[in-house]
Fold each of these.
Amino acid sequence: EEEEEEEHQDVDVVGKTSSVARPPHEPLPDSANYLQLLERKLAKVQKGSKLLDSLQEKRQDCMRLLLASSNGSALIEEQLELDTPIESGRLQRHLLPHQALTVGELVNIVKHDALEEQQEHSEEETH
């Protein structure tokens, strides 16, 4: 048993070396399963490069289409106008945190709400 134990020199915080006997390394019983799991995850990650390549191709196609379109510059200018920040004081933002930060957040995306229409219709029927 003494032959199996290896002696290692450890360095203390102070810098002194001491000889410590360590038992031989024994892997855990489930380490084989863990290694298989890691290998499967690695294989999935390596397959992900195909997805990344297809996404890069799609991005390039969209960029080509945007550059080829004649009204692309008008669309970009409109988006930039919506991204202009709204000037509000720091104290006001702290006291009222639920407020728009950019002009684009104030734009009505849906001007016609189906639920609101149903509610108005039901109110008209009850009156």
Amino acid sequence: MKRDKILNLSSFLLASLFSYAAGSKLLDVQKFQVELGQSEMLNFIAVPVSFIIPVVEILLAILVFVPGYRLVGMYASFSLMIVFTTYIIIIMNYSYYIPCSCGGVLAKLGWREHLFFNGAFILVALAGILSHHDIDKKDLICKPRQL
């Protein structure tokens, strides 16, 4: 039962994060495009990326709630958070100008706090993956039929 709660909490937290992040980006997509364009790594693909990222975030928010796709959503969420965190580390270490393309409350975080925030959500996704695997193993155990 505890594993179910961990899985449900992980799903809720990830879906909330991705829904909020996608919504804040889509509400002011022009600002998001400008901020992406200020990044040395993304300036040449800022426009397509400004639409791709929110769409991916919305898809992940849905996947982590649909039982048949929840594990895929957890792995994809884990991977996306690793990519976002890697991007932040690269920008912090190799860029002269550090643009913030995050929306809403997240834009108010410093880069170090943002790394901790991302790290926490990497752990949330990992907890969801591990609890999902544990639940699946219990379901695979053959139980004697009752007559």
